[in-house]
Amino acid sequence: MQRYAVIVDPLSTGREYPAAFREAGVEPIAVMTAPEPAPAFIASWHPENFEHILYYEGDIKALAEKVKAFDPICVVPGSETATEVCDALVEEVLPGTLNDPARTLARRDKWEMAVALQKAGVPHLRQINTADEAEVAAWLKESGLEGKKLVVKPPKSMGADNVHVVEAGADWRHAFGEVVGQENKAGFINESAIVQEFAEGVEYLIDSYSVDGNHAFVDICRYVKVQRGDRIGIYDQVNFVEHDDADAQLVWKYVLEVLEAVGIRNGCGHTEVILTEEGPRLLEIAARPAGGGHQIITTVATGTNQILRTVAHRVRGEQLPDFRLIQQVRGTFVSADAHGVWKNAELFDGLKNGEVPAYFEDGIAYKTGDVVPLTVDLFTPIGWIILAAPTMADIERDYKWIKDKESQIIIEPVA
User: Which SS3 state, helix, strand or coil, does residue 344 take?
Assistant: First the structure.
């Protein structure tokens, strides 16, 4: 008898679910929350991977009846845009098999995340969510953050979309205006903006996988980002860290509190945390697999990933143990410092001809003559490169090669 798994918005990393479920003998079904994906996700939508595609048209009960006809073994979110519809659909089709339905927004909206942490007594950053400049000004004065370094961002941003840093003493109003009323990468208008105290410290990415409230440690990485103007979400390095590293354990203990606070009970958790002098502080959490090629790189580093753990859980009833690194791995990004025509993409030909011994894979999507965007977030780099080797010295050697080539990139402005 054929078994089915439903993936809501199988976009971004979620596009990896169909092959993984099919390999386990389960037929995937796509549920799309909109007639067409948002522009940032169009390239990752592969309808040819599905025999059955259903659409949410505003009536969750009508959609649930269509899904029930397949008697699926699970309903899982494939991307950030899936969170709210997926939670509602699960409660109609397979109630209790995903996450706490009363805290859906705490897993999607950054303001609601902060509210959930406050209610649970979990340390969090000071912030306000509003569309009113006067309200921000009053809050900054009351909170003692007036004139301090700040971050301004959309409540439902993703991939560092439209995240701005405001230097100490600078006027935050320009960044505020850049967010409120603007369309975000998910295709929605930002009805408000979060103004948040700036967290000084090392940034970590932490992935988890939960089964009935038991949380497994999937991977942890130290981020290195660079700043261009007031944009701070420009990724440079993603460095995998061993599970028993002292800071990793401190951060993981904090993430366990966060997972409980926002009601993650089953499935993937993708959390970003700053380790400050006062301790870990949440930037954001998402109830879906990590995106941006992270499933590939996690497999290289640990031998498994969140997609494979999902299949193990949903198909075989297994929860895989906490991770161990099997080799040193770094993901690095190649950025463009201008919008224009890339004149010398051949700079990176050496990746595949032996000049870079630690080279594993790349996602450089442009060639000579292509128009490339100015890199401002996770959606706009020229590409990414994965390095894997026995030692960190090997990684550093080849990372320097990549950055040297990046410094030689020639981009001709577009008239």
Answer: coil
The CA distance from 150 to 13, in Å, is: 31
CA distance 399 to 204: 20
Strands (E), 161-301: 164-166, 193-197, 202-211, 214-228, 231-240, 267-276, 279-286
Alpha-carbon distance of 30 to 10, in angstroms, equals: 7
pLDDT in tens, 178-219: 999 888 766 778 899 999 999 999 999 999 999 999 999 999
Q: What global pTM score does this model have? A: 0.90
Give 386's contacts (C-beta < 8 A, 6+ positions apart): 293, 296, 297, 300, 329, 330, 331, 359, 360, 361, 362
Ordered domains of the chain (ranges, CATH):
3-98 (3.40.50.720), 126-197 (3.30.1490.20), 202-413 (3.30.470.20)
Q: Are 219 and 298 in contact (CB under 8 A)?
A: yes
Cα dist. 388→227, 329, 332 in Å?
Answer: 26, 4, 11
Spans in the chain with pLDDT lower than 50: none
- Can you spell out the DSSP letters for 61-121? HHHHHHHHTT--SEEEE-SGGGHHHHHHHHHHHSTTSSS-GGGSGGGT-HHHHHHHHHHHT
